[in-house]
Amino acid sequence: MGEYVVELKNITKRFPGVVALKDMQLAVKPGEIHGLIGENGAGKSTLIKVLTGVHMADEGEIYVSGEKMVFKNPNESKAAGIACVYQELNIEKLLSVTDNIFINKWLKKGTLLDYDTMHAKAKEVMESLGQDVDPRKPAGTLGMGIQQMIEIAKAVLIDAKMIIMDEPTSSLGEKEVEQLMKTCRELKARGIGILFVSHKLEELFELCDRVTVIRDGQYIETRDIKDWTNDSLITAMVGRTLENQFPKEFGVKGDCMLKVEDLSIGGVLHGVSFEAYGGQILGMSGLVGAGRTETVRAIFGADPIDGGKIYIKGKETKIKSPKQAIKEGIALLTEDRKGSGLVLGESIRTNLIMSSFKKHSDGPFLNEKRIEETGQGHIQSLRIKTPSIDEIVGQLSGGNQQKVVIGKWINSDADIYIFDEPTRGIDVGAKVEVYNVMNSLVKAGKCVIMISSEMPEILGMSDRVVVMRGGKVMATVERDSKHFNQEDIMKAAWGGTLDD
Amino acid sequence: MTKKKSGSGFQLGTILALVIMCVFLALSNSNFYSPSNIMSIFKQTAFNAFLAVGMLLCLITAGIDLSVGANAVFCACLMGALKESFGINSGILLMLIAVVAGGLVGFINGTLLTRLHLPHPFVSTLGMKNVLWGMALLVTSSKMINNFPKSVEFLGNQTIGTFGGGFPVGFIVILVLYVIMHIFLGKTALGRSIYCAGGNMEASRLSGINTANVLTFCYTLSGIMAALAGIYSIGRSGICNGANATQPYDTDAIAACIIGGASFTGGKGTMFGTMLGCLIIAVLRNGFAMLSIDSSVQNIVLGLVIILAVLMDVIRAQMDAKRRRLAAGK
User: Fold this and answer.
1) What pLDDT digit, counting tens, does each position of A290-315 carry?
2) A441 FRET partner, CA 20 to 30 A, in A30, A218, A360, B281?
3) Of A238, A270, A297, which residue is a domain's last?
4) Structure ipTM
């Protein structure tokens, strides 16, 4: 038996074009609550996936209780005693608590399922986690906190040595968080190691024994919790030096193109207000789940809103559908290029004109000549690498696909361009080209709103930054303000306040 | 563009399959290639070809219309009932009412799907099939009705020339209709929107395409095509018969589209391929009759053909996905 329940040594994981983890280290002791934090994209999810056997590491070793392991699939990781409670719970809402707990490891009496024993055991294990529930009840009828406990019960039942909790408090109420923390301490007392991944610093300080910080796929530091402070954690998380990889050019600040007032969606957005101007890039910063995507989707009419007002060029406008938003001069490049940006099975030609059929038609008929002209124009100006305009979009690389989406929106002749994570998953060269498109848009007096989870990109390209957290705007920072730096913006994104 | 919608290799395979079937049947029975039998194949093709137009549009949107067969029978029965019970003897008026009724049924299907958010068109159109079956029997009191006006029967029984007893007008109408639909799907904004909606509904909606309207249009057009099929069936048989609503017309139409390169996952399919599919189905049914194969066996084989066609579509999609994966990995 080693000193650590789970230990990772020099784990490296590569994906096509990126190194997701490089020489990653992590060591969790038995009976320890170990915090893991990092910015968006720091590699937390990949690390969890390596631990749970979803991904196989390319290099490095995993030890469980001192014994070297290779996980080829999730079952092997589970068998070794590593369980994970994901942010998105794996609960079958229509099945009973018992069914959920014993799924795939049914207790049997002969060939039939032995529900009497299973119900009794389910009740027992749930009680040991402080939950007095009827195990016959469908899981979906119970609160999120209890559903999460069902996941933990599964872990307890397979005698997990370590339980990974990925953002476990993100969908819980205050009382439920308290209960969860209590349960964590009880599990700790039983000698189970807990890897607690969280975006909330205060929780780490309250709960954890040690905290590991990772950044850009690399291990930074592990310290006892008493040796960390809010500021030292944030510095460790961002602590990179900014190189100027951003060809920022400035436009002339114009009129207020978009004004959002008290935008709200029940449970998601709580009174979001901000303004965006022509000739400027407005950056939207925040952690994943801060409500940035929800905000722009609401503005674009993609999702219904429960309250608030939207003014376009000073005029209040009620936007009920994307079609209407496009008419009002708004374009939205979604974060999910494949899911909601492109029709992968269609040609570049068709994808480019999806938002501007009218412009490319005479009456009901498409004008192929005009489509060809504007299409070839975009292929040249955006430098889309493709054998022909009739190439199926699904065959292109990520960067070229993104350029097709951008071309589609330029075709719509919008005034307000909203780019949601425009450079995610594309290579460096293509990134610069995307930045240059934004530059030329602001120089033409257009208003650009850029959501980005990459701090250097936010600082490199934005004229102003809106920082969101938990469905609210935490701060608005001008480029010439003293707060326009990664520490302060990160502080706001993690719930801190900025003085004036 | 259109030629890229479905791999041309697959269409070549479809043409080949049709040719092989024809050669085989011609060798087995010399009656197969007699002029009158060829004309009769065209006549058989036309009914299914009307239904397949609407079915194809729905399949392209990743939907399905299981009510087309029952809708055709209902429209025919409605015309019969109006003639018998209300004494409407104007063929033009009867046909107009049928087309409006068929279109309305399709519009309801589309509205159930897009505005009332039924989970899948499978639900609404399968329910509608039963409703229409019952209504077809109800309006005709479960009786067959004959003696339709000449103008109603024109589409289904008029022929031109003397070759093999005359070339059926219905099939000429089909050829013209398919050319028009081919242009519609490939050359108009609405046609292109149908492919986009089927390929990625959310991306289309977020690009400003009113996907609800596009879908409703497809189902409405499917209903209108079903009404035309109903009118055609009266000309072919001289009667309307509500009991026919349970015939496997819908599956024949689906089979034609899938054999022709359409996919249940949407975004794919062409008029040309669908025409090939309709011909294959008609030749199959005709060949079975020629070889005096029992109708129960016919149904078994046709069922297997549909499964095979879908299986080929699935394998094709998997191969596409793999190719894409490999291309992206480079």
Assistant:
1) 899 999 999 999 999 999 999 999 99
2) A360
3) A238
4) 0.84
